[in-house]
Amino acid sequence: MSKTVTREISIGDVGTRGSEASEKADSDRMALNVGPSHPTTHGVLRLIMELNGDVIEKCEPVIGYLHRGDEKIAENMTYNQFVPYTDRLDYLAPLANNVAYALTVEKLAGVEVPERCQAIRVLVCELARISSHLLGMGVFGMDAGAWTPFMYTFTEREKLYTLFEELTGARFTTSYTRIGGVARDIPDGWLDRVKTFCENLPKATDEVEKLLTRNRIFLDRTEGIGEISKEDALAYGLTGPNLRASGVDLDLRKDKPYSGYEKYDFDVPIGTRGDCYDRYLIRIEEVRQSLRIIDQVISDFPSGLWYAEDARKIFAPPKEKIMTSMEELIQNFMIVTEGPQVPPGEVYFEAENPKGALGFYLVSKGGGVPYRLKIRAPSFCNLSILEKFVPGHMLADITVILGSLDFVMGECDR
Amino acid sequence: MIDDEFTKALLEKKGFLSRRDSLDCLTVDCPADRLVDMTLALRDEDGFDLLVDLTAIDHGEDAEVRFSVVLHFYSLVHRGYLRIHVLCSDNEKPSVPSVSDVYPAANWHERETYDMFGIEFTGHPDLRRILMWDEYPYFPLRKDFPLAGIDTPLPAADVVEVTKASVEPAPMMGGPFVSSGDNVMSESEPRARDESWTEESEKPS
User: Fold this and answer.
1) Which of residues 45-64 of B touch A (CB under 8 A)?
2) In this predicted model, what pLDDT tens digit does every residue of A73-130 receive, in sequence order?
3) Average pLDDT score, chain B
4) Which end of chain A is more exposed for a tag (fewer CB within 10 A), N or C?
């Protein structure tokens, strides 16, 4: 069983202020539209609210402003062609999306990747988690009125993006995985640079903690605000840090280990109260745990191939062999003209992404393209609870609540 | 764990279920009229706390049963997934009972499935489009909806008045390039799905 970390936090008396305010101002009702393009909404989210004075009585999220029809597009292209589209789901952690998608198709095709490839994938997933949480925490601080922490986290994230650039050739839209492997092996000396980054990161997170964790103003704005009970969190299908903050011990890296996560030792932080403050604490602890995982991956980095030999036969033979060997040339020709031959069937796979469980439901009727690909986006589910728990809060709390949920519209609207 | 014993007990307890072959998790077929009872029992008795996903598949216009709704559940106690297929009996007006009273998570998922496939969820408290705008006339994830899209008026009348804009289909000459797969090889080279028009030449009407 996993060892879990529980943090006790004291409870202030801010919980009652919403109801007091509503008694005072009864004739002050108005409708307020926030977004779709509004700095607090972190993307093109629109909220239609009914206010009574400063108290929100109804909150209706309107989504779909970033809908691109990714699922329709997926039905019209081969499996490897869809990898770049996965970057654009949760665009703050594209590497983790790439890995989740590759694992889904591999599950359907029955491909096992070698140890080195698994280790690379775990490593990039955790780096993606750190990068996503760094941004999430920094922006959350900003939403609560603290600018400085953002500078620290963004500086670190910038360094991380330089590492991604070296590995994948792109800072933002990485498209790093292929079905049955990764696009290329890690560059020489890259692991050392990751190590240096990881050694220096705790300094920055400590600094953020000094600025936020016991900050009186930050506590007043986040403690007891946006509480989500365990039951509600489960009923609305929350996943990831938002679910764990409400006290549910569910981390797919522990519960349904994939890509070799069972080999690494790490703790899953669980919240007690499910308020905005807990969600912040969970994220900052998850960054520390990710560092632990990365440390273990690097200290015992497997050698060998970084792609599966049998996947090459289905999806793409090595480029250098296409040019020199007849057999691979024919293979490549067949794959390009007819698409990879994946058996018919259906699979569902979820990976523990920084925002929650990113799931792919893949239906194949054989042949080169998926028949149906459903993307189960964590941000979509995380936002559906807004309607339930926002009413009763003050208008000023909405920035903090949205910041603490840490959602991405690219993934929500697909 | 969801093992053979659990499967056997579940299938015995609920005689209306029939098992399907599956590559990964336990998959069952459930008749539409028993779905709500089934999900209630799953939540309260069998420990499936999370409805992780709800979606639909369009099996094509010629299929005997055109639409099926697929639900995925996750259980914290069993640490496993369960998949339920519900076949929609009517191909013209597909409908399935809503489970959003049992699992509030289904609310948005059902709205999305309605939006994309046009499947009615009877008993849903607020069945509106969610990703497309309210006046949008088509169901984009149906197999008969073209990838390029269909010419549609914009919903904002004031914008249309000024810009004369509408939602136009995208020329498909730029791809994605897909092989038809089932012809002789010389004919199944990857091509764009609709080559009849480009940015330069008008779309034939």
Assistant:
1) 49-53, 55, 57-58
2) 888 888 888 899 999 998 999 999 999 999 999 888 888 889 999 999 999 999 999 9
3) 82
4) N
Of the partner residues A78, A357, A413, the one whose CB lies closest to the CB of residue B52: A357
Could you read off the pLDDT of A167-177 as tens digits, one per residue? 998 888 888 98
ipTM of the complex: 0.84
Whether the Cβ atoms of residue A32 and residue A378 lie closer than 8 Å to each other: no
Classify domain A4-8+79-388 at the CATH topology level.
Answer: Cytochrome-c3 Hydrogenase; chain B (1.10.645)
Separation between Cα atoms, residue B10 and residue B42, nearest integer Å: 10
Q: Which of A82, A103, A236, A238 best tests the B interface by mutation, with the highest count of B CBs <10 A?
A: A236
Sort out which chain A residues have CB atoms less than 8 A from B24's CB and list them: 107, 347-349
Pairing relationship of beta strands B67-75 and B50-58 according to DSSP bridges: antiparallel
> Which of A69, A236, A367 comes nearest B104 by C-beta?
A236
In this prediction the pTM is 0.86
**Per-residue pLDDT at A153 exceeds 80:** yes
Subunit contact B23:A345, Cβ cutoff 8 A: yes
Structural domains of chain B, with CATH? 4-145 (3.30.460.80), 146-198 (no CATH)
| In the block, residue with structure tokens 């903050």 | A245
Residue A8 CB contacts under 8 Å (≥ 6 apart), including other chains = A272
Task: Test A372 with B131 for CB contact under 8 angstroms.
Answer: no
